[in-house]
Amino acid sequence: MTDRVVLGVDGGGTKTDVCVATDAGRVLAFVSGAGSNWEGVGLDAVGATLRELIAAVLADAGISIGQVDAASFCLAGIDWPSDEARLRTVIEPLGLACPWMVDNDSFAALRAGSERGVGCVSIAGTGGVAAGRNAHGEVARTMGIAIGEGSGAWGLVAEALAAMARARNRGGAPTDLTDRLLRATNCDDVSALFEGLSRGTVHVGGALSVHVIDAARDGDAVAQTISRSCGAEHGRDVVGVATRLGLTGDVDVVLAGGVHTSGEAHFRAGFVEEVDARFPNAHLRVLDAPPVAGAVLLALDQVGAVLPGIHEAVCVETGAARSAGATQG
């Protein structure tokens, strides 16, 4: 084998994608398996998942770990320097004898969505985060703690619950969200829902955000206000990251995560309004490639192997591989 070969890992809370590709952008193997967010499953489970998936993808590619020229691990749950140190203790025993990096999975989404690898990414999925990189390689991101920041699907649900409580207490306008969320949680009335929440017998999560999005699309004014407000928060996060990095002009802004990709008009309007106010020439792109493509490209960056057209090639090939549905475990 004469091509340089890299390993890219994109690990989320529910799924981990692992890809081996060449410096020409050709995917040699692709597998998916269990999630690898250490906050949810623990470090030992992350280590086991990575060992299993990397062994499988290398076997499929017909190479040994010693033939990997660079690797990139983009994992959910790496939010602080201490987290990076934790995950290094899991990755070091894998036996890589090449340059490798570990970082938050938001940077994989940014690299997959930006050909230049420079700009910002706004992720509005189950949770939310904004991150960015400038031309000098400096990076910045929000904390991803759902306090004072955009928090994706959970932010929509939290605001919907607050609106229900205000409507119940006659401190806010009636909203169709009440009936929608009561049906979704199998509760008879608002008091029963909040009693269950306070006593731990009813549990809610980001999946309920679909009802907020649907209500906004169906014309509920309260849901539309919530959606727009949450979108604006994510927009302000991007502006803050771009400002910290000294980005100017035609900033690339990558949109990723289910709330962004839903295309709900009020969420998008709130987001765009905030970004346009500071960066009117920003280029917004909804991510349509697997984030693992970004992990592969970050690995290629380490060996200086990013050739003209490589970004598109990696995105297309990883997308095709993911569609083929390779799964391990």
Layout of helices and strands, plus pairs?
Layout: E1 5-11, E2 16-22, E3 27-33, H1 38-41, H2 43-61, E4 70-75, H3 81-91, E5 100-104, H4 106-113, E6 119-124, E7 128-133, E8 139-141, H5 152-168, H6 177-185, H7 190-199, H8 209-217, H9 221-244, E9 252-256, H10 258-262, H11 265-278, E10 283-286, H12 291-302, H13 310-324
Parallel strand pairs: 1-4, 4-5, 6-9, 9-10
Antiparallel strand pairs: 1-2, 2-3, 6-7, 7-8
Word description of this protein:
The chain has 13 helices and 10 strands. The chain is globular. With 329 residues, the chain is of the alpha/beta class. The protein has helices spanning 38-41, 43-61, 81-91, 106-113, 152-168, 177-185, 190-199, 209-217, 221-244, 258-262, 265-278, 291-302, 310-324, and strands at residues 5-11, 16-22, 27-33, 70-75, 100-104, 119-124, 128-133, 139-141, 252-256, 283-286. It has 2 domains: 5-117 and 288-324, 2-Layer Sandwich (Nucleotidyltransferase, domain 5), CATH 3.30.420; 152-286, Nucleotidyltransferase, domain 5, CATH 3.30.420. The two termini are 28 Å apart. The strands form 2 sheets. A 5-stranded mixed β-sheet has the order 3-2-1-4-5, with helices on both faces. Helix 2 (43-61) crosses helix 3, helix 5 runs antiparallel to helix 9 and helix 8 (209-217) crosses helix 9 (221-244).
